[in-house]
Amino acid sequence: MKTWIAFWNILKKDMRNYYLKPPNISWGIIFPLAWTLMQLIRAPQSFEINQLLPGLMAMSILFGSTSMLAVTITFERRGRSFDRLLLAPISLTTMVLAKTCGAILFGVFNAFIPVLFAAFFIDLAGTNWLLLSFGVLMIAVTSTLLSLVIAVSVREVFEAQTFSNFFRFPMLFLCGLFFPVSKLPLFLRPLAYCLPLTYGADLLKRALMGGGMMSIGLNSVVLLAMAGLLFVFAERCIRRKWIL
Amino acid sequence: MTIVEVNDLSKKYGELMAVNGLSFSIEEGEIFGFLGPNGAGKTSTINMLTGLSRPTSGQIMIAGFDAVKEVKRAQRIMGVVADESNLYGEMNGFDNLCFCAALYGMRKAEREQRAGQLLAEFQLTGAQDRPFRAYSKGMRRKLTIAAALIHQPKILFLDEPTTGIDVASARQIRKMIKDLKKQGTTVFITTHYIEEAERICDRIAFLVDGKIVRIGTVAELMADTESEHQLELTLDRSIPQLVETEFKQHFPSLRLENRGENASLLAAPHRIALSPILRYLEEKGIAVYEAREVRPSLEEVFVKITGIEATKLNPEKEGGKQ
Fold first, then answer.
1. CB-CB under 8 Å, A2 with B86
2. Which residue is closest to A83 within chain B, CA to CA?
């Protein structure tokens, strides 16, 4: 049995049917543009693209990778087309990887749109591209897996959307992108350190501007561990909740 | 050779016992039917057999594989048609079939060739470029069945394949099921249409409240409930009262009932020899135009065995869908 054929075709179908639809691509472009414009209008004097860029990238990844997966999986579950994947002679791990890969790639694609725009206005020569790419990938992976956990936990499409926002917005404001974690109220700080985005955002800041709250090693280890845990947890939830 | 062997299979959802200790086997190349009303446990059983649901207890063997522990190996030889047409609405017919083929690891050239072949077999070639959501109900059902056959499974599971579709499509699907049997494919079908089960199944299991109440061929099921043999005679006129009295004295083991002007019913606990009756009636100047053995319908057998009214089994029938 050629598992890679099944894997590739699930990924290709998701990309074609969901991620590469014009509304999604335009969302990926319009969202960072609108956010930048909002910052420019709000404070034109203190507007610095390089400081805004990590936040924009993180938001683009977060919204890109989480907006579709939970919704599409819930949608496919409702229409029972998802049963086709459960009935296919491929392992659950292969299926989960194929389903999440589309969202991860879409998140990564979205992340580089603000970088592309920024390149017209600021010098990105000092950027650590390898670290930036790793940070982008890890934010995309963890956000996608979080989205998968949401998809497993809900039954309706609207629940998936509501739950996604319930996670996304607090994550954005607690991860240190807009307010440094050190300036958060004491009781919120442990929560900030439980979020994968905190570590991913730190990597993005370090790659684009230097400095950073934690070391590259710590950020990487925590992100990899969180990704692994989320994957195992999501797969377990699928086995428990979808194969009744 | 046995291809499906189920032993003491049960499924509990909370306090509800959906499937209660089912045991049955299916022979290779057989069309085996589950007949029962909604909520009898048909879909729960099919879900457990195909790996979409885990049994609470019991054992399922499919082609030598333990379908609970080695579910992915068993799934390789199965085709499954759910009770809903569950393909991808935004993809066209051809792409849907190719995608399903890819899930079984088929290479591009092979899956395109097989998809084309199935579209032709199901008379859907003209609609192959249309999105699935634009198909009629009957076309959707046919494409869903084609998708289940894409990898040429040894055993096909069909969950209510003709429910809610037009008569012509239902007929075509039944013919396809019979053709599959000729090709050696084993078919497991659930239905609540008695006529459908009677027409296409080699063996039928009556399922009520998660339990098999009777299992056998149509002939066996009928034989089980036949308490007497009946013959209906069409005559040139009704039997006069005097002849009727003499007839009863002449044939004491037979029960004679007049049924309207030119028809009479003969009943006996044994098979009825026709020639003495014909001779007797001829002597009395009564011509017999036709003699027909009256057998109970499967519907009557079902009602007798299960105690469930046929209208409850097939509520939409009255709406004229079948």
1. no
2. B52
From B8's Cα to the closest Cα of chain A, the distance in A is: 18
- For residues A3 and B98, what is the distance between their CA atoms, to the nearest angstrom? 15
Cβ <8 Å between B107 and A9: no
pLDDT over 90 (residue A153): no
pLDDT band at A244 (very low <50, low <70, confident <90, very high): low
pLDDT tens-digit series, residues B26-64: 999 999 999 988 889 999 999 999 999 999 999 999 999
pLDDT higher than 90, residue B260: no
For chain A, the domains span: 2-243
Per residue in B63-79, is it b (16+ CB within 10 Å) or e — as a string? bebebbeebbbbbbbbb
The 3-state DSSP class for residue B109 equals helix
Judging contacts by C-beta atoms under 8 Å, the chain A residues touching residue B54 are 243-244
Contacts of B75 in chain A (CB under 8 A): 87-89
Q: Closest partner residue to B103 among A6, A80, A244, by Cβ?
A: A6
Angle (deg, nearest 10), helices B137-149 and B93-103? 30
Please report, to the nearest 10 degrees, the dihedral formed by the alpha carbons of residues B138, B143, B146, B150 taken in order.
-170
DSSP for B144-204 reads HHHHHHTT--SEEEEESTTTTS-HHHHHHHHHHHHHHHHTT-EEEEEES-HHHHHHH-SEE
Task: Tell whether A81 lies on the interface with B, counting CB pairs under 8 A.
Answer: yes
Q: Is the pLDDT of residue B228 over 90?
A: no
Most confident range, picked from A25-29, B182-186, B237-241: B182-186
What are the distances in angstroms from CA B37 to CA B164, B210, B234, B320?
A: 15, 10, 37, 18
**Which residue on chain B is closest to A5 by alpha carbon?**
B105
Q: How far does A170 lie from chain B, in Å, by closest CA?
A: 34
Residue A31 has pLDDT above 50, yes or no: yes
Q: Using the predicted structure, report yes or no on whether residue B89 has a pLDDT greater than 60.
A: yes
Tell whether A155 lies on the interface with B, counting CB pairs under 8 A. Answer: no
Q: Please give the pLDDT value at position A47.
A: 62
Q: How many CB pairs under 8 A join A and B?
A: 74
